[in-house]
Every structure is written in C-alpha cells, then in structure tokens.
Amino acid sequence: MSTASAPRFGLPARTADPGLIGLLGFAIATFTAQLAHLGVQDESAVFWVGAIFGGVVQIVAGMLSFAIGDDFHFLVYNAFGWYWLCMPGFLLGGELGFFEVAGPARGVFTLMFAGLALLFALPGATHNSVLPVTLLCVSAGLALQSASAFGAAPGFGAAGSVALILASALATYMLAEKFIRRTMGRIVLPLGRPWLRGSTDSES
Fold first, then answer.
1. How confident is the model at residue 1 (pLDDT cuts 50, 70, 90)?
2. What 8-state DSSP symbol labels residue 186?
3. Which of 10, 88, 143, 157 is the most exposed place for a label (fewest CB within 10 A)?
C-alpha cells in the first residue's frame, strides 16, 4: 500500500479530522456564553459567537463526520450545533419581544440537552477518559442552569456556568491533543484509558 493512500490515525489519508473545528466551535461558544451568564460581559457577543462558532461551525463538523461514517460525532456536533442556533434566537426574541422563550420553557429546552449530554457520555466513555468527563460537565452545567430557569437560587446558574467553563477547558485540551497528534505525529497530551469497552477509536 502506498504512503499516499495509507490510513493515518483511523482516517483516510489527506482527510482532515472534523473534530478539530467541532471542538474549537464548542469551546469558544461555551466559554463566551458562560462569561455572559456570570456577568463578566453582556450577551451581545453570545448572539454572534453562539450562532457562528457554536452553531454553524459545529454543524459543519457534524456533517463532515457524516461524510467519513462517524456516527458518534455526527450526532453530538449536530445536536449541540442546532442547540447553539436556537440560543441566539432566544436572545433575539427576548430583545424584540417576539416569540420570546424564557423561564420554565427555556428550562425545559436546556434540561433536554442536559439529558442528551448524559446519554452521549456513555458511548464517549468507550473512546478515552477526558471525553466522558467533558460530557458529564456539560450535562451537570446545563442541568444546574435549567434548575435556575425553573426558579432555583441564582447560585445554581453560577455553578452551572463553572461546570460549563470546565467543559470548555477540557474541550480545548482535547483540541490541543488532537491537533498536535495529527500534525506532529506524536502523542504529547494523554486522554486516558477508555472507561468502557466497545470502540477501537481513541478520537475525542
């Protein structure tokens, strides 16, 4: 088999890994949104960063994952990509008073994705250790913010933001690991052993 056609890191030769932009989009959008939730900045940046990096970039990553037959990342990136396209719509609706989504309705939406992240953590645990921890942080963060939307103490929302900032940091770590491994051909940052058997793919 020639070098040009040989598989590298589980993907066909000369095929970039969609996870590079998927993790980038998730990390940037999540971190930006949590800064707004904690009152560090206003929500204007969340509208644009969420729509572009959280929404468009993750959906593109999901569809590119479909093209290489990666069911797990196809679903995860698409699910959270469309989530991030809805969130700017919620902000816009609140500003314009048009189809406004707030309070318990927003809490139900957020809680659904907390459940999805928890579900995704199970197959994610067959890949490595960092991926399921990231998804569990996402699930916990969204669940806490959902509780805040249902009228719980503001501290719940702040705790959720901290969990989501941690998830953003872990996604950045996985992005750095993936980029170094695929461009330099060496493993520098460990992702840890899978918690469960079932996948031969260590990709994050």
1. very low
2. S
3. 10
